[in-house]
Structures are given as C-alpha cells and as structure tokens.
Write a structure and sequence with these properties.
Elements (H helix, E strand, L loop, with lengths): L2 E4 L4 E2 L19 H11 L3 H8 E2 L4 E2 L16 E2 L3 E2 L7 H5 L3 E5 L2 E7 L5 H4 L9 E2 H7 L3 H26 L10 H10 L3 H8 L1 H8 L10 H20 L5 H21 L4 H14 L5
Antiparallel strand pairs: 1-8, 2-9, 3-4, 5-6, 7-8
Length: about 290
Amino acid sequence: MQTTKLSTKSILPLTCSRSGTCCFGKAVMLNPWELFSFSKEKKVSPREFRDLYTDFRGIRLTFNGKQDKKGQNACSQYIDNHGCSVHQGRPLACRLYPLGRQIQFEKAHYIFEGAQFPCLTDCAEVLELPKLSVGEYLKGQGAVPFEKAQDEYLKVMQNIADIAFELLLDSGLSASGDTKTLALWREMGNELPEKLAERIGKDWIDSLMIPKITNVVENPIEFIQKHNDLLLIKAQESFGSLRTFNQVREACVLIMGIALHLSRGLGADTKGIAELWIETAKSHGAKE
C-alpha cells in the first residue's frame, strides 16, 4: 500500500467532525502504560480493564460493540451518540488517527496510508472544517507523553531481548551446538498472539502488562523505567540458578517470547523483529 510521509508542518484536514466513524473496525494496540491510563480513566483496576476490555492478555483493545452499516464492531469503550467513554485516557493510536508514526534512525516520522487522506472516505465533511498542521494536531491531541511512552517501551523491548541474547550466547548454550533456540524464536515471531500469550503464561504476562506500579502513572518515563527494573529483577530471580542447557533454552525462549509479545503491543512488525534478532544471534555464532 502507498504510504505518504508528512512533516509536522504538513497542512491537512485534521479537524475532527466527531462522527465516531474511526471508532469502528480498528485494531488498536496497547502498551502497558496505555493500559494503565485507560484503567485510571475508567476508574477500575488495570487487571479489571485488561480482563474486560482487551484481547491477547492486554495488548489489543477489544472491539465488540454495536456494529455500523459496514458490519464493523465499535470499540468496547464507544458509547452510541456520545463517543469515547474514556477519551482522556485514549492511547497513542487513537490520538494520532488517521496518522501513523514510524521510527527511523531514532527519529519519528508521521504518515498516512493510501493515495487519499483516510478521513475523506467516511468523513468527507472534514473538508468544510479548518485545516491544521500535523504539529498543531498532535499538540491538540495531547500526543507527546504517549509518544514518549511508546519510545521508552521500545527500549524496554530491546532490554528484554538482550536477556535472551545473554542466555543464548554467554551461557555456553550456543557454543554447545544448539540449533533449537533460534528455530523457536522464529516460530514465536510467526505465532498468533493468543498462542504466544499462552506460551508465555499468566505469571509473566501479568508482570509485562499489569506491573505493580501505582504512584507514577502521570509520568510515563518514570513509570516505564520502574517497569523495566521490575522485569529485570524478575528475570534475574527466575533465571539466576539455571543448571542445564535445556533449562537455559527454555528461559531464553520464554524471555524472547515476552519481548516479541511486547513488540506486538507496540504495533511493531513482530515477524520482522524476530528475523532481525535471529540474524543478530547468528552473526555472533548462534546456529539454526
């Protein structure tokens, strides 16, 4: 599909008509801080919000509401003739829409997909509303802290993956001639999200998606840094006394699965990331 790249100065029909069309039939992925932000606005616990309103143990918002004329279900948070019931807690995907965001060489770029601006398909009335620059739109949407959260979780994703690399390359597992680990990394990269969540298991999924952090939700960077520390401590406690190569392999596959599951919640190309990490491991002597 054609992709149109934008700058923050690009002028587009970004003033919303508030028809609610974009609240139907979408795949809205969530990182853990966004899940917490949603739950706070909903006035329920993060666990309750996750269990009631998300798919795959927290990484995607459930769309099971009323259907539109196209047969598309509304977001679980959408109220007919009202709109989003948790608008102040909405995630980055909703704040950016109809724009997308790509990170290239540590710099963010904004895009939209297709030859025509997406809103014009179902909301042509936006042409009659004032146009905004991309920068003005993002500011009005309060996107900045959510962008910071997304970027910080990309670092967490890599930190988790680095543990898997250490288990594979520094434990002697790779040098032993192991060929199973990378095959399992690839399998997980291609796995359906519900199967990968099942593989990871409840305990680690809870640690990934609903960490026990309550007092810094307003500050995404502080929240995510604490979350990162909790995950590293848990990994050290869980994998600090492995005795056999089979145990090391199981730990290595588990922790890489966690990194890949988080990548999907960040809207990343999980299959592509798995392949990149496999090639990286092979460049350091791992085999498959």
